[in-house]
Design a protein that fits this description.
about 300 residues; alpha/beta; TIM Barrel; nine-stranded parallel beta sheet; two-stranded antiparallel sheet; 10 helices
């Protein structure tokens, strides 16, 4: 499969400080525009920016509602926090969404909230993850534990989606006689997308993921993304996996005022080997924004690639 054939474009609607009807409008518009192949939410419980009392919707509940009202888009959370739900409960939720969507779920997941011990470069006291987790009775864990918990979760998910009944005895999670029926529509379960960029997370990506996602501009510089991609290549080779098996995914916050800038940013990312492009829409979605991005960003870039 060449670069052009593998290239896909999606969008992300962060469900914060927006109305449900606006999110639904964007998703249903995208569902009718073939240039947009996938759509994403996120997984937070309090607003991370803007008014603290602002609206925000729970990701998996909202995803299920949107899955029932669309018919074509691949869909998921970019990314699920592994600290919010027990692994087997998450596996059941994801199975249900895959069934509701008729097999369109992509299982996006990441470590979730972590903290460093005092004096070890820990997170600042005003980090929004602290308030969010405290408000919902959730616990932050050290990064090493977060990685280990994510590894166990991924193993549990895969077994729930493929085995009739099983026990699981891990360091952090124990299951006795787990049964998960019905199984997902997708025979081996939904494709697995893991988000993150640390070396230990990239090792998990190499071992388990179909897609690796990393935040893009303006959050991370292109040279950093390229360096992290090379680290992932090395992690794959260390375990005997072909790095080309893992699609490289990136989130790009789009500008509503400068389509040329959007094209330039995405062109550079594609040139760096990223082929799963998620256009993240700032809140206040203009009418017809999906059609505009398809016409002004996606189609021109595809035409450039086709022309060589």
């Amino acid at each position: 499969m060449n670069h052009q054939e593998r290239l896909s474009f999606g969008l992300k609607t962060t469900p914060m400080h927006v109305d449900y009807d606006d999110i639904l409008r964007v998703w249903q518009e995208a569902d009718g525009i073939p240039e947009i192949e996938h759509a994403w939410l996120w997984d937070h419980l309090l607003p991370l920016v803007g008014p603290k009392e602002g609206k925000i919707y729970e990701g998996w509940t909202l995803l299920s509602a949107l899955a029932a009202q669309t018919s074509r888009l691949k869909l998921g959370l970019l990314v699920t926090s592994n600290r919010i739900r027990q692994p087997a409960v998450l596996g059941k939720i994801a199975t249900t969404v895959d069934v509701v969507s008729r097999g369109r779920l992509v299982m996006g997941i990441g470590v979730g909230g972590t903290h460093q011990p005092a004096g070890a470069g820990g997170i600042a006291g005003d980090n929004p993850a602290i308030a969010e987790y405290e408000a919902y009775g959730l616990t932050l864990v050290p990064p090493g534990e977060g990685i280990a918990r994510l590894d166990e979760t991924v193993r549990i998910l895969k077994r729930m989606w493929t085995e009739k009944e099983f026990d699981f005895e891990g360091r952090y999670y124990t299951l006795k006689g787990n049964r998960n029926e019905p199984k997902p529509v997708q025979p081996a379960g939904p494709p697995l997308l893991i988000g993150g960029w640390g070396d230990r997370t990239l090792r998990l990506v190499a071992e388990h993921a179909d897609i690796w996602n990393v935040p893009g501009p303006p959050h991370n510089r292109l040279d950093y993304i390229v360096e992290r991609s090379r680290v992932l290549d090395g992690q794959c080779r260390a375990i005997g996996r072909d790095p080309a098996e893992i699609q490289r995914s990136v989130q790009v916050i789009v500008s509503y005022d400068d389509d040329g800038a959007n094209r330039r940013v995405v062109r550079e990312l594609i040139g760096a080997g990223l082929t799963h492009i998620v256009l993240s829409l700032p809140r206040g979605y203009p009418q017809g924004i999906v059609r505009r991005l398809a016409d002004e960003v996606v189609n021109p870039l595809r035409a450039e690639l086709a022309a060589g």
